[in-house]
Amino acid sequence: MGYYGRRYMQARTPRQNNPELVERIEKTAARGTSMLTDWERNFLGSLLESAKKWGRLTAKQHEVYQRIEKKTDPEVQAAIKSWRENFTPEMREQLVFAANYYKANPPYYGEVAQRILTDESYTPSEKLFRKMVQNRYVQRALANAAAGPKFAAGSMAMVRDNDLTRDYRGRMAPYRNQMVMVIAVEEDVKSATKGARKITVLPVGGTETIITEERCLKAARI
After folding, report:
1. C-alpha distances in Å from residue 37, one per residue of 3, 29, 145, 171
2. Which of these, 189, 184, 101, lies nearest to 148 by C-alpha position?
C-alpha cells in the first residue's frame, strides 16, 4: 500500500486506548490455559497484539473471541463438569444406540458417531447429546427397539395383502395372504419406521428364504 493509502486507512481507523479489552483478553487466556486448543491460544495471542496496537477488534474477531471467552467462563465450566458427572449409564446406552442409528442411516453425525462407538470415555456436550439423541427420529427408533419383536424365530406368520407387500422390492407380492415360517429376527433394529424390524422368512412350500419386515406380516391364524 502506498503512502496515501496508508494515510487514508489511518484516518479511517484511528488507534484507541482500551486497557479494558486488553485485560479481558489476558484474563480469558489465563483461565483457558488447560482447556483451550493450540489454535485458540494462538488466536488469543493475536487478538492481544491487535488490542494493544489498535485498541479494538474487528467484528469477526470479536465474534470468535466471545465464543472462546464463554468457553472459559467459570459458570460454563461448572455446568460442563456437572453434566459429565451426572451422565448416567442409561444416557450412555441411548447415546450408543443413537451412534449405531446414524452409522446405519448416514450421512449425519458420522465422525462423532464413530468416536462414540470407539471411545467409551467420550462424553458429548449436553447440546450435542440433545441434538443426537432427543430428536424424533432416534426416539422413534428407540421405541421400536424397546417394543421388541412381534414374531419369534420358528413361529408362523401370514403375508399381508397391502400396498407395501405389493411393492416391497417385488419379492413379497407373490406370497400375499400366504403362510411363511419365521427363520430369523433382527435383534437390534435401527430404524425410525414402525414395523421396520428385519425378518427372514421361508414361504410354506418354498425353498428360498426372503428378508422382509414386520410390517409386511401379520399373526397367522392356525
Report:
1. 39, 11, 39, 54
2. 189
Strand partners, 159: 217
For residue 219, the cross-strand partners are: 157
Q: Helices in the chain by DSSP H: which ranges? A: 3-12, 19-31, 38-54, 59-72, 74-85, 89-104, 110-118, 126-133, 136-147, 163-167
Per residue in 165-221, pLDDT tens?
Answer: 877 656 888 889 999 999 999 988 888 998 989 999 999 988 899 999 999 999 988
The C-alpha cell of 51 is what?
Answer: 488490542
Q: Say whether 152 sits in a helix, a strand or coil.
A: coil
Domain boundaries of the chain, sorted by first residue: 3-72, 86-134, 156-219
Q: Residue holding cell 452409522?
A: 103
